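Most newcomers find our protein records easier to grasp once they have seen one. Nothing more is needed to start thinking about how sequence determines fold. Here is such a record, shown just as it appears in the course material:
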Amino acid sequence: MNDRWTSDAGAGGTSVSQPSELRKSGTGGLVVVVDDDESVRDSFRILLESLGFTVKTYASGRDILRDGQCSLACCLIVDQHMPEMDGLTTLAALRRDGLGARTILVTGRLDAEITARAALLDVSAVLEKPVSTARLLDIIRTPLVGRHTNGRRHDQCCS
């Protein structure tokens, strides 16, 4: 897991010691992770569960679209570069279905086109791999003030 998570300390970003050092009481909510790489899904799940979040993972955009359970999520983390359906195409379909949760796009290859497409889909953040743990948690825990989806307010569910 240490090769996937970095802290914001130091110019090159150092490995986070252990997720338990980042634990805060009172966290929670459902975080959904979509990534075709099983080890990445497992890393996100282990980190977020250690911090008190409930985590559901999917191996593809098609899998999450078939399930329909993501409407309960307070945050969705999606990899951009996946076979069959990329992350932004997946998010566009979920937005059409009414998903209002915070969304984080992760990518190993960030470019201007991805950033522009993400902005059009109201993506909360685009993070380049390796993902900074501190930045990830700041984004997940920041309230989405006033956003409503399926009769639910999303401003408090991940804090």
About this structure: Residues 1-26, 146-156 have pLDDT under 50 and may be disordered.
